[in-house]
Amino acid sequence: IRKAGILEMIPVSEGLEDIGGLDNLKEWLEKKAVILKDMAKAKKYGVELPKGVLIAGIPGCGKSLNAKASAKLFEVPLLKLDMGRLMGKYVGESEANLRQAILLAEAIAPCVLWVDELEKAFAGIGGNGGGAEVTTRLFGQFLTWMQEKKSAVFVVATANDIMKLPPELVRKGRFDEIFYVKLPQKKERRKIFEIHIRKRRPGDLQNLDIGKLVEKTDGYSGADIEGVVKDGIENAYVKGKPCVDTEDILTAVSETHSLNEVMREDIE
Ligand code: ATP
Questions:
Q1: Whose CA is nearest to atom 12 of ligand 1?
Q2: ipTM of this complex
Q3: 246 CA from centroid of ligand 1 (Å)
Q4: Cα pseudo-dihedral 252, 188, 267, 142, rounded to 10
Q5: CA distance 229 to 253
Q6: Using omega within 30 degrees of 0 as the cis cutoff, is the peptide bond preceding 110 cis?
Q7: Within 13 Å and on the Cβ side, how many CA atoms surround 130?
Q8: Whose C-alpha lies nearest to ligand 1, atom 2?
Q9: Side-chain-facing half-sphere of 55: CA atoms under 13 Å
Q10: pLDDT digits (tens, 9 = 90+) for 140-156
């Protein structure tokens, strides 16, 4: 399973402090961390064991980042399940792969199991043909496991398009909560700029007009903002400047804006 890249252990360095915005999600995860820290105590108190969370929303807005940060917060390993690679060529192979992946995750528990691009895995549910049948069986297997799960495997499932997910999956009882991440608003963009500038050029933060950068990046995702910060730093370096200034980053913004718009139209 691990050799085939179906289940992969992901090293984690990002924490909640590396995420700008998404305050509700971060607060929710912090509450779950208290429970997961001493599950025996929580259970004795009558608290339900957390099952997991579904995070949906457009690309580049911090879904993967949250999967990683939750493992760091819970102080447990992060396992990533690649649903695309799970599908085998032979009869019953996909189901056996999923069973093995689950067994392995349960053996490693406590851990976070990150199921990425959930909607891709379960596309074609209820359709006709061999592929659709396997998908439907796999889906049933996954749902049953989620519903009956007693182990300390906290599932973080991420999906771009919640509309493509089968309704059974988003019904209560499967995930503890579903969060929808949107494009960052002004306050969040400010935080995201600060995080990425502080990571690379902490000394320049006070010289930069973050307010102006925020104004000029309406419609940018977190990943877009990270991109303009990186490009802005590169601009300043290539010019031989000792510090990065607002103009360097604004140049990067003006160069990427049209590309972002083209890509976003594609997604929509
Ligand atoms: P995808 O659906 O494409 O996987 P995603 O929503 O999972 O997208 P991430 O992989 O979390 O997006 O984001 C990509 C990168 O963009 C992150 O590694 C991070 O550096 C930056 N980023 C995105 N959102 C945020 C945020 N809210 N705060 C700080 N950085 C962010």
A1: 60
A2: 0.96
A3: 23
A4: 140
A5: 9
A6: yes
A7: 8
A8: 59
A9: 28
A10: 888 889 888 888 999 99
